[in-house]
Amino acid sequence: MPSVVATTAAVCGAAFVGYAVYFDYRRRSHPEYRSKLIAQRKAAFLETKKVEADRKAAASAKAGQGIPADLDLKNEAAVNAYFMEQMRISQGLMEEGMVEQAVKHIANGVRVFEKPSEMLMILQQSLHPMVFQMVLQELDPEAVRRAQAQAGPGAAPADEIDE
Q1: From the centroid of its chain, how far is CA 18?
Q2: From CA 163, how far away is CA 147, in angstroms rounded?
Q3: How confident is the model at residue 6 (pLDDT cuts 50, 70, 90)?
Q4: What pLDDT digit, counting tens, does each position of 104-115 carry?
Q5: Are 79 and 70 in contact (CB under 8 A)?
Q6: How far apart are CA 103 and CA 130, in angstroms?
Q7: Which of 155, 154, 163, 108 is nearest to 130 (CA)?
Q8: 126 vs 5, 115, 122, 130, CA distance in Å?
Q9: Alpha-carbon distance 151 to 6, whole Å?
Q10: Is residue 154 helix, strand or coil?
Q11: Helices marked H in the chain — which ranges?
């Protein structure tokens, strides 16, 4: 009895393998097989190129803003550590009198902060008005120009204000 079961299982296994080989042969010998395969590979290649280009564009956008390309903006701990580091660096630069560099580090910190508008309100209260104006200009120079244009031609530009 065990030999009958073993023989039946072997025959069924051989039939399955034979069918799989036959099916593969028929699939590969189909006239459109190669063209579909080439189209699929080309589509996959183009998709990979697009994803790679998107990553590079995101990295260059971050770098253009002064944010390191390897900073994961979804990792809250990494973002907080980067923010605190930028604030610490800016404080040290302020103490040394390097205001322009400090402003760049403050702007980098604000760019990654979870709620930048709240941080700007805090900075407005704690920073000298001229330094705060420089931070705003570093964050969005075009918005500052528009605000000055709306203030009118008689208003002094932020560069000329001396307090």
Answers
A1: 51
A2: 20
A3: very high
A4: 888 888 888 888
A5: no
A6: 11
A7: 163
A8: 86, 17, 6, 12
A9: 93
A10: coil
A11: 2-28, 33-64, 76-96, 99-112, 116-126, 129-139, 141-151
Whether 41 shows a pLDDT value over 90: the answer reads: yes
Its pTM surpasses 0.70: no
In this structure, are residues 159 and 136 in contact, taking their beta carbons and an 8 Å threshold? no
pLDDT surpasses 80 at 40: yes
Q: Which structure tokens are listed for 102?
A: 């400090």
d(C-alpha 155, C-alpha 163), whole Å: 15
How many CA atoms lie within 13 Å of 119's alpha carbon, on the beta-carbon side? 18
DSSP assignment string, 1-26: -HHHHHHHHHHHHHHHHHHHHHHHHH
Mean pLDDT of 29-52: 88
pLDDT of residue 16: 95
Q: How many CB atoms lie within 10 A of CB 155?
A: 13
